[in-house]
Amino acid sequence: MPSERADRQRAKYKRILLKLSGEALMGENKYGISPKTLSSIAQDVKDVVDLGVEVALTIGGGNIFRGVSGATEGMDRSSADYMGMLATVINSMALQDALEKMGVQTRVQSAIEMHQVAEPYIRRRAIRHLEKGRVIILAAGTGNPFFTTDTAGALRAVEIGADAIMKATKVDGIYSADPARDRSAVRLPTVTYIEVLSRRLEVMDTTAISLCMENKLPIVVFDLTRPGNIRRIVCGEPVGSVVTFSA
């Protein structure tokens, strides 16, 4: 108990937005949702909620449907993107179920209205849920085609007043090049928004990076596959890489 109180007092971030890719839910599978991976992510989120940190999440839909690939195969881009948004709702409902099985109060809010399965996204209601200690899962992107889930995550993080946006990946931060292809690539503990844009480091798309830069919102890129990393970041440990104004 004393340790938990100490963690709460020294939490670096009081309100965060966690950005997950749809692929993060696949685990070792080639598509779909891995129950084991889903449970592991839910446990990591619960550990942070137990510290008193307010948590919002956005999830991609790439494990089910990827709009851009549909467009390249001849499908209308707008239709493909709307299908991708619906895929994010499926993922959001799956994560909600996993969290609630662990006793974490959760609400799914969708940018596309579908009252039978989710609340409509209303900024003030989302903030109220956070203040009451509920996790909110923000589904269906921005509700508009041609915008990525990176941009949706950055937009929602700014709207709810998050202290940081945390992008979960399969690597332990931002590298000077793709570490899977370039052995000389080095990890960058801190990097500026301008460097990310000018060096095309592919942290997020340019719209998302610009939105974070304009609103001075830090971006933390970290390895989701290592359990406990979200809690470590929240408690101030130097995990992953941080994008800020000054490196």
CATH homology group: Acetylglutamate kinase-like
Biggest sheet character: 9 strands, mixed
Rg result: 17 Å
Which CATH top level class fits?
Alpha Beta
N- to C-terminal distance: 36 Å
Strand order of the main beta sheet, please? 4-3-5-2-1-6-10-11-9
CATH architectural group: 3-Layer(aba) Sandwich
Can you count the helices? 9
The helix-strand sequence is HEHEHHEEHEHEEEEHHEHE
Low-confidence regions: none
The total number of structural domains is: 1
- Specify the helix fraction band: 25-40%
Overall, the morphology is: globular
| pLDDT averaged over residues | 91
Instruction: Report the count of strand segments.
Output: 11
Helix/strand-derived class?
A: alpha/beta
Task: Give your account of this protein's structure.
This protein is an alpha/beta fold and 247 residues long. The chain has one domain: Acetylglutamate kinase-like (Carbamate kinase, 3-Layer(aba) Sandwich). 39% of the residues lie in helices and 19% in strands. The chain has nine helices and eleven strands. The strands form two sheets. A nine-stranded mixed sheet has the order 4-3-5-2-1-6-10-11-9, with helices on both faces. α2 (35-49) links the parallel β1 (15-20) and β2 (54-59). α2 crosses α4 and α6 runs parallel beside α8. The longest helix is centred in the middle third of the chain and has 25 residues, at 77-101. The radius of gyration is 17 Å and the shape is globular. The chain starts with a helix and ends with a strand.
Protein topology:
Blueprint: H1 2-9, E1 15-20, H2 35-49, E2 54-59, H3 67-72, H4 77-101, E3 106-110, E4 119-120, H5 123-131, E5 135-139, H6 149-160, E6 164-169, E7 174-175, E8 187-188, E9 190-192, H7 193-198, H8 206-214, E10 219-223, H9 229-234, E11 241-244
Parallel strand pairs: 1-2, 1-6, 2-5, 3-4, 3-5, 6-10, 9-11
Antiparallel strand pairs: 7-8, 10-11
Helix pairs in contact: 2-4, 6-8
